[in-house]
Amino acid sequence: MREEAIARVQLVFTLFDADGNGLIEADDFELMAERVVAAVPEADVGRREAMVTAFRTFWQTLAEELDSNHDGRVDYAEFQAIVLAPERFSAAVTEFARALTAVADPDGDGLVEQSTFVAVMTAIGFSPPNILALFDALTPANAEQASAPAWAEAIKDYYRPDAAGIADHLVTAPAS
């Protein structure tokens, strides 16, 4: 497996462990959802509710697929199984990507403002240099908006540990 894939799995685990207790639990996904909702207050109720539902679905999928001892938590050893069968999470990731980009595009024009993109990605826990590198990779030169569909595709690629490309901007610090 590529080093980037391993680094991505480690980073995703850290991001999902939103409260930092070393375990992924339902409360972590509720916390992430609250942070994203707070980051885009102009999004309508329907988009916010769809995004919260997507976070919950993502947690339920992780718990069903990875919580091997059925204790309601996923530790890092259990989480590593995501690498072996990322297709098991495809539907949840697709729903998550669609809902997240929709909440970040409150006017529904298919474009996400840079400030909103940064706010949402910061709420999830990514570092600013990596967020900006991804935004730049998603946009034409000097653009102030990213394509919501392109971002959704990058999210789906990001959660496929074997994938390479734009999503790697979130794992490694961009070159200076």
How would you describe what is shown here?
- There is one protein chain.
- By secondary structure, this protein is mainly α.
- The chain is built from eight helices and four strands, in the order H-E-H-H-E-H-H-E-H-H-E-H.
- The chain has helices spanning 3-16, 26-39, 45-66, 76-79, 90-103, 114-124, 128-138, 148-158; strands at residues 24-25, 73-74, 111-113, 145-147.
- The strands form two sheets. It has a two-stranded antiparallel ribbon. Strands 3-4 form a two-stranded antiparallel sheet.
- Helix 2 packs antiparallel against helix 6 (114-124) and helix 6 packs across helix 7.
- It is globular, with a radius of gyration of 15 Å.
- The chain starts with a helix and ends in an 18-residue tail after the last helix.
- The model has no long low-confidence stretch (mean pLDDT 86).
Report helical residue fraction.
55-70%
With helices defined by DSSP (H or I, 4 residues minimum), what is the helix count? 8
Q: Output the strand order for the largest sheet.
A: 1-2
C-alpha geometry: globular
Strand percentage, roughly? 5-15%
Mean residue pLDDT: 86
Which residues form runs of ≥5 with pLDDT under 50?
Answer: none
Distance between the termini: 27 Å
Order of helices and strands: HEHHEHHEHHEH
Biggest sheet architecture: 2 strands, antiparallel
Instruction: Specify Rg, calculated over alpha carbons.
Output: 15 Å
